[in-house]
């Protein structure tokens, strides 16, 4: 994490250009320090064999196993028509299962001599399926002979480290490279303050690096991992604590609502009372708005928990205080939808400057990229003069031409869809930094919120408003039980017959060119080999087949914005029975009369995405139904994921499942500017306590020494973590 001269040595000087090139291109490792921080994924014990019973499909694996038998076959093929083709089949075992290795033609000679029954070796390759059996084609292997000097040296100790590897570089080659650079670990400068390290009984950084790469015992691994987890948690939390500290120094205009202003008038109009959660979160937001440094708050709420209402009340409080509020939505469909629902909720309060507008009214304007020139000019003028108190728009709001009279609050909807630069550009439009409220309907476990959004205070809305209906979810296994799919379409017809509407969601539009290489993601079975189902094809098949006679329309991201809006208006007005769409409907689309949703190829979507999509039904008083259609076999991981979604409506529970199934690196990597995730040993879900404690320790360190002058090792570690991209991310977050 911290890199000093010996650790900054380029790998090509130490390992030679060929190995260094593969490490840089395939593993992102450039220096000695990078390689020392490339930790083993797990360890094999000499006497213990890996479980061949649970090998992951389509992944690059390393196993330690024993040869059970080896057979050489000859065969005829187009290349070897006279039966001269050779195939060596080697079966290896570990007691839990068996795996077949296959070598062809010229590649059979060496393994035929070396892989004799009883031989033990490490094998590395990509798991595939042939004739319903798992196999490795032409795996690389390293014999484990107890007597050879080199092997004993390379695998010293009883524990064999297995490194995250690639097809170009096997685990044992990485292990040998690590042995070469390991002496440099002595020069690693420790980022943890001595008091913290001693207080928690953690080993020094050089010792941790030595123990993680060459452990003598399992206790060594545990010591090393707990020390390295602290490094990762602490350095990241220090970066976030410094960011919060810097924000607290910025000036902002305090915005307090007037007791008899537009907010009070709006509250009087509401036909229902706010839930306890909405009241509590609003209180937290109003307290932030009343301070003289900018609010930075993350509002996360379940799908349909009423976040928009909470955000609107915050915007009205700012309008009351003489400022303007801007809401940034990720798509035009959503910006238009928000604009519609906000003006409907506000009624005459949104008709500022118009006949019939209420006394305290303001203007609510929409600004999107596809607006006509005249409408756009009018909207820009209303913003510049302050006539419009609220503007809702897409990233068109960020353009240079857009000037605000006095921007006081920025609300960002669905944070993960916005680049950091975009949020920053909008915040730069205030005379002083405006307050910032970030909303997301993707529930984020507390630890991830602390890690990814650690510079934001967090509010959570977890109650659903009264009158919301439960959603029943079921998996429809179309390949095993085709009659279940037929029944799904009957259910859609029944919902329509009862006066309701339905969505059908597909992963693809259908007018794009398919890359034949990408059409199949893995060979789990044929369901994965065919291209994902497409909106245009499915809509046509349904209209001619099971849903004949119903009014079916399509909606997708490549339609002209006016056409999209027209389709959504017809659907909202109940003129369309079934809307076949891509995930453009995932966020914020609100049609209370839509009660059923069928998600085709549901296994192609992530857990949180399925939860988001499902939240589009059951928004009125009638119960919702969500059917997850898949052709994946029952035992597959994809089916287990779908079963998890069907079994709970709790988004926080699902986000934990999602995180456990994906590596956190993906989650954090996406959330942090797309830079490679800095987490290697820290597991966001399991290490909740370490993250919470590291956050407290980091806050103390930064409060006492914001510039970290007294902790040069920590400064160096921070510089290494905050490469340029990450630095910008934290600067602009």
Main β-sheet, in a few words?
Answer: 7 strands, parallel
Number of helices: 28
Amino- and carboxy-terminal Cα gap? 22 Å
Name the helicity range: 25-40%
Average pLDDT, to the nearest integer? Answer: 82
In total, how many beta strands? 21
Q: So what's the oligomer here?
A: single chain
Beta strand %: 15-25%
Describe this structure in words.
With 733 residues, the chain is of the alpha/beta class. It is built from 28 helices and 21 strands. Strand 13, helix 16 (420-427) and strand 14 (435-440) form a beta-alpha-beta unit. Helix 12 (276-289) runs parallel beside helix 13 (307-320). The longest helix has 32 residues, at 218-249. The protein is globular, with a radius of gyration of 30 Å. The protein starts with a helix and ends with a helix. The model is unreliable at 148-157, 517-527, 663-677 and 724-733 (pLDDT under 50).
């Amino acid at each position: 994490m911290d890199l000093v001269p010996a650790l900054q040595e380029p790998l090509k000087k130490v390992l030679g250009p060929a190995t260094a090139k593969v490490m840089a291109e395939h593993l992102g490792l450039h220096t000695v320090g990078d390689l020392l921080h490339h930790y083993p994924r797990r360890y094999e014990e000499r006497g213990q064999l890996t479980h061949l019973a649970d090998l992951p499909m389509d992944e690059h694996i390393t196993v330690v196993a024993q040869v059970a038998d080896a057979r050489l076959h000859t065969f005829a093929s187009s290349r070897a028509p006279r039966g001269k083709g050779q195939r060596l089949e080697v079966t290896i075992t570990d007691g839990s299962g068996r795996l077949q290795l296959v070598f062809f033609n010229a590649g059979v000679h060496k393994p035929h001599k070396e892989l004799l029954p009883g031989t033990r070796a490490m094998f590395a390759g990509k798991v595939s399926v042939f004739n319903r059996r798992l196999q490795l084609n032409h795996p690389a292997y390293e014999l484990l002979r107890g007597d050879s000097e080199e092997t004993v040296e390379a695998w010293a100790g009883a524990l064999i480290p297995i490194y995250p590897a690639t097809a170009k570089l096997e685990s044992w080659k990485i292990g040998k490279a690590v042995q070469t650079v390991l002496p440099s670990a002595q020069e690693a400068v420790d980022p943890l303050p001595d008091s913290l390290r001693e207080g928690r009984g953690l080993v020094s950084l050089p010792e941790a690096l030595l123990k993680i790469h060459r452990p003598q015992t399992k206790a060594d691994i545990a010591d090393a991992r707990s020390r390295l987890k602290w490094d990762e948690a602490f350095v990241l939390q220090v970066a976030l604590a410094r960011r919060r500290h810097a924000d607290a120094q910025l000036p902002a205009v305090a915005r307090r609502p007037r007791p008899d202003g537009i907010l009070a008038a709006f509250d009087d109009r509401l036909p229902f009372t706010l839930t306890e959660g909405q009241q509590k979160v609003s209180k937290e937001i109003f307290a932030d708005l009343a301070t003289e440094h900018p609010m930075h708050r993350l509002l996360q709420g379940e799908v349909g928990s009423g976040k928009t209402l909470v955000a609107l009340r915050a915007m009205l409080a700012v309008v009351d205080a003489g400022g303007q509020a801007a809401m940034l939505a990720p798509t035009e469909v959503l910006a238009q939808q928000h604009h519609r629902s906000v003006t409907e909720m506000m009624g005459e309060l949104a008709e500022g400057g118009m006949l019939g507008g209420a006394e305290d009214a303001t203007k609510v304007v929409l600004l999107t990229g596809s607006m006509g020139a005249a409408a756009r000019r009018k909207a820009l003028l209303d913003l510049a003069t302050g006539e419009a108190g609220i503007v809702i728009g897409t990233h068109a709001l960020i353009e240079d031409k857009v000037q605000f009279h006095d921007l006081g609050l920025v609300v960002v909807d669905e944070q993960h869809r916005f680049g950091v630069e975009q949020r920053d550009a909008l915040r730069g439009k205030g005379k002083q930094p405006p307050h910032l409220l970030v909303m997301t309907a993707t529930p984020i476990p507390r630890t991830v919120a602390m890690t990814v959004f650690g510079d934001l205070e967090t509010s959570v809305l977890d109650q659903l408003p009264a009158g919301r209906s439960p959603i029943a979810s079921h998996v429809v296994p179309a390949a095993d039980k085709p009659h279940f799919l037929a029944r799904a379409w009957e259910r859609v017809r029944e919902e329509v017959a009862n006066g309701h509407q339905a969505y059908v969601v597909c992963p693809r539009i259908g007018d794009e060119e398919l890359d034949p290489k990408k059409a199949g993601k893995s060979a789990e079975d044929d369901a994965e080999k065919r291209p994902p189902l497409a909106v245009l094809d499915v809509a046509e098949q349904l209209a001619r087949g099971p849903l004949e006679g119903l009014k079916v329309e399509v909606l997708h991201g490549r339609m002209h914005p006016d056409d999209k809006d027209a389709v959504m208006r017809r659907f909202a007005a109940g003129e369309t029975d079934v809307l076949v769409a891509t995930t453009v409907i995932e966020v914020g689309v609100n049609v209370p009369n839509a009660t059923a949703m069928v998600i085709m190829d549901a296994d192609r979507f992530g857990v949180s995405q399925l939860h988001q999509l499902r939240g589009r039904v059951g928004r009125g008083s009638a119960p919702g139904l969500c059917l997850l259609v898949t052709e994946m076999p029952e035992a597959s991981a994809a089916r287990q994921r779908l079963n998890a979604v069907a079994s709970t409506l709790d988004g926080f529970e699902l986000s934990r499942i999602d995180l456990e199934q994906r590596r956190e690196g993906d989650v954090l990597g996406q959330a942090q500017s797309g830079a490679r995730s800095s987490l290697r040993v820290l597991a966001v879900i399991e290490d909740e306590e370490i993250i919470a404690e590291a956050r407290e320790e980091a806050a103390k360190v930064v409060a006492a020494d914001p510039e970290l002058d007294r902790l040069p090792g920590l400064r160096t570690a921070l510089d290494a973590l905050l490469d340029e991209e990450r630095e910008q991310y934290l600067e602009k977050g």
